[in-house]
Amino acid sequence: xxxxxxxxxxxxxxxLSGLLTEQNRKSQDELRVMEGHVKRVEKMAYMGxxxxxxxxxVRNPLASLVGSIQLLKEDLHYDPDHMRLMDIILRETDRxxxxxxxxxxxxxxxxxxxxxxxxKEAIDEIVSxxxxxxxxxxxxxxxxxxxxxxxxxxxxxxxxxxxxxLLLNAAEAIQEDGRIEISAMASRNNDVRIQVKDNGCGMxxxxxxxVFDPFFTTKPEGTGLGLSIVHRILxxxxxxxxxxxxxGAGTTLSFALKRSNRTA
Length: 264
Ligand SMILES: Nc1ncnc2c1ncn2[C@@H]1O[C@H](COP(=O)(O)OP(=O)(O)OP(=O)(O)O)[C@@H](O)[C@H]1O
Ligand SMILES: [Mg+2]
Prior knowledge:
The protein is of the alpha+beta class. The protein is built from 6 helices and 7 strands; from the N terminus they run ααβαββαββααββ. The site of magnesium ion (MG) has 4 residues, from helix 4.
């Protein structure tokens, strides 16, 4: 009988130690996976810092380049061929400058100075600037529906950047008879919902799932940083972009901001 008990105990111990060994191996595997993950995240952060540093350093020589070409343009005898070439250099340096600035903004968004904004006023101003911007290729009707008396605390430049990017995307998505609507309405939980709606080309499911990836673009001249920057900015206000779209019919992008009840 004793023998049986000892036997069973030995057997139990063997099974238990087997289980423990297995458990131990599993935890070690998990630990290795975690370590790999942490290393990757660290590497990404490190690469982001490097890239941001590089972009920062590219800005100064770029500015000298533009300055020098502008001086040359004024000094040289007029020659249409030379002028054309210099305009190409200026245009391309401008593009590079924008790319570098956008990338820097994305990699290291500045904190900004939040202030009390009257949304109707602020959005009207951005919209009128946007309407006057002559870079749009396509024609569209841009309408606003902005509720009175909505105030938010936000950096003015941040709001402009978000709306400008959304309006630009809307304008670029339009084929003909373009219609863009921008609205701001009070909504649940003391929020304001700001919405930009277009009747442009819409997006496929694949596009929707990639729109926030930096450098994802379906446009030949796009950098794919627009919505990534919007996402980064809204993050700082505990907000995010909601995407509703139908291929061929149009897109509605919206986000919520906390309403401020203090009077300015
Ligand atoms: N309103 C929209 N209608 C249709 N597609 C859109 C709309 N907004 C964004 N997209 C899609 O999302 C992609 C990413 O947009 P995002 O603004 O980040 O970059 P981009 O517009 O391509 O380039 P960039 O803004 O840097 O000039 C676009 O290339 C486009 O395919
Ligand atoms: Mg864009």
